[in-house]
Amino acid sequence: EITDAGRKFLDEHKDVVDEIFERAQDAVERALGGAMAEMNRAVGRLVKTVYRAGWRSRDESTRKQIAERLEKARQEIDALVA
Q: Helices (H), strands (E): how many in the chain?
């Protein structure tokens, strides 16, 4: 779990973190393109949202609910290709 100091560091360097995500997404799009690029953009947005929600939330119950929803989504996606 990320520490308070880690949260503060990431908040203070949000512009750098966002740039890293954007560069990674651009590289994937150039390499893969098409629907795979769309999927990677969606994953990037999801990851940013999940981590930001986790950083901002001080409530363990909320973090647990986020983790449970992510697990449910993982199971549903696995079922699509099973």
A: 4, 0
Q: 18: closest CA among 58, 55, 54, 47?
A: 47
Distance CA 79, CA 73 (A): 10
- Per the structure block, which two tokens stand in for 5? 């100091």
Render pLDDT for 40-73 as a digit per residue (tens, 0 to 9).
889 999 999 999 998 888 889 999 999 999 999 9
Angle at 19 between CA 70 and CA 9, to 5 degrees: 75
Cα 78 to Cα 49, 67, 71, 72, 75: the distances in Å are 22, 16, 11, 10, 5
CB 2 within 8 A of CB 54: yes
Predicted structure pTM score: 0.57
Task: State the Rg of the chain over Cα.
Answer: 15
